[in-house]
Design goal:
Two copies of one chain form a homodimer. By secondary structure, the first copy, chain A, is of the alpha/beta class. In chain A, 38% of the residues lie in helices and 22% in strands. Chain A contains ten helices and ten strands. Chains A, B: It catalyses: (R)-pantoate + beta-alanine + ATP = (R)-pantothenate + AMP + diphosphate + H(+).
């Protein structure tokens, strides 16, 4: 496994492999890799001749006052994991390499104004821009994203479609701790007490999955899930929402593929979780 | 020469050629081709194994009330010209093929808020988006743009740089009628009287080129050029400006590479012209 830190070197190496007819899989990450990332990397390794893991803590998707500076990092451990899983390259540029007096950006209407986009107004513009850059640098055949960031996945799919990127977007299921907590780099912020309290998100998600049925009013489903969240005094609910899984518009009832998602603060840590409801018909 | 109308067919044909190691040149146009376009196509044919001319009247770069509906079209003549010049493909999609419930877009800060961007607020967002799409569909090695649309050329260069597109942007000089008028599809809007009056733009540009010298105050240069424009009663000046040729910021004096540009209405037709001043040092 080789670490590449410059865009020109990444292009040189990857174009040569492309000319040889090799397929390339890309796993875009912000580092501090956990088993969720590992599941993406494993798939990229299995499905492509070359697997590239980008480790780049992208400043443009964090607003002023968000946790960019506090975000956990452990590049050595990230490299060890990538090596162990059989990744071919880790692409690890400095922010100055990626954004040198940059003014162009990629954005998307209406899918990005709800849910996470409502809470974090510049977030998805930063995500779309950095993913576009990574697509242009790596030119992957396939790119792997976790279902944990469900809205991000929907937005990337729409961006690829709208801008005609030649990339197959592969969504991968949420990976959970044994007690249900969705794996996240941000779990490291949790105190021992908060860590215990944080299981309330997945318990609420599981309860939602259990009771959801075709035609169920969204308000009833949200009510059931809020009921579980209310049992945990440390939980501060930001939203529990039911949206169309493709276009992210709010749904009144479970009559189409639906993203059921939540953001909850446990102490000062903001966590997200979700499930996708698939109608039986 | 072959006409392609769908994105999937363009990708299929062009990826096959790419795999064979062929180089691809792209000339993005809105059709109604004139000698200015011809000069771009000739260069694309000369410098690449495959030359693709896109003929697409892009609706997203026209605002409400602009001349989208009136914009001249002659697809048969366009094809004949492309054939004669040795182009390999004409890519001619319907608007519905290019924008199917589209929400993603590409934009650029501050370079696009001055000059043409000030007069046409959504214009460059439309240009950046459609050019990004064409780059992703065609995957050209080189793309050809005219210096006539100087700000567009600067913006495309910056976009390619910022988003790491694997495309070499080639700028080509303005092509003029024998009396100096810059070639433009919009010249067809001019009445016989207006056509004569329209030479005042190039006369002003030539006067500017004549008097420009290192360190000259921008206001003095603009004054000289406005003086020429004032001689034509049919001319309604929108702007004559001196800007940094790279970042499009206004310049006080000719102390760096400068774009000296104008927009002038002749009757109801809006025309543009420009020259680039290169300091001697």
């Amino acid at each position: 496994m080789q670490v590449i830190t410059t865009i020109s070197e990444a292009k040189r190496v990857l174009r040569a492999l492309k000319r040889e007819g090799k397929t390339i899989g890309l796993v875009p990450t912000m580092g501090y890799l956990h088993e969720g990332h590992a599941s993406l990397i494993e798939r990229a390794v299995a499905q492509n001749d070359v697997a590239v893991v980008s480790v780049f803590l992208n400043p443009t998707q964090f607003a002023e006052g968000e946790d960019l500076d506090a975000y956990p990092r452990d590049f050595e451990a990230d490299c060890a994991l990538c090596e162990r899983l059989g990744a071919t390259y880790v692409f690890h540029p400095e922010p100055s390499e990626m954004y040198h007096d940059a003014h162009a950006f990629v954005n998307i209407d209406y899918l990005s104004s709800t849910l996470e986009g409502a809470a974090r107004p510049i977030h998805f513009r930063g995500v779309c821009t950095v993913v576009s850059k990574l697509f242009n640098i790596v030119q992957p055949d396939r790119a792997y994203f976790g279902q944990k960031d469900a809205q991000q996945l929907a937005i990337i799919r729409k961006m690829v479609d709208d801008l005609n990127f030649d990339v197959q977007v592969v969504g991968c299921p949420i990976v959970r701790e044994s007690d249900g907590l969705a794996k996240s780099s941000r779990n490291t912020y949790l105190s021992a007490e908060d860590r215990k309290a944080a299981t309330v998100l997945s318990r609420s998600v599981f309860r939602g999955q259990e009771v959801a049925h075709d035609g169920m009013p969204a308000s009833e489903l949200v009510g059931e899930m809020l009921h579980v969240l209310a049992e945990e005094p440390r939980a501060n609910v930001e939203y529990v929402c039911v949206n169309d899984a493709i276009d992210m518009q709010p749904l009144d009832a479970l009559d189409t593929e639906a993203l059921v998602s939540m953001a909850v603060r446990i102490g000062s840590t903001r966590l997200i979780d979700n499930f996708v409801y698939q109608p039986a018909k």
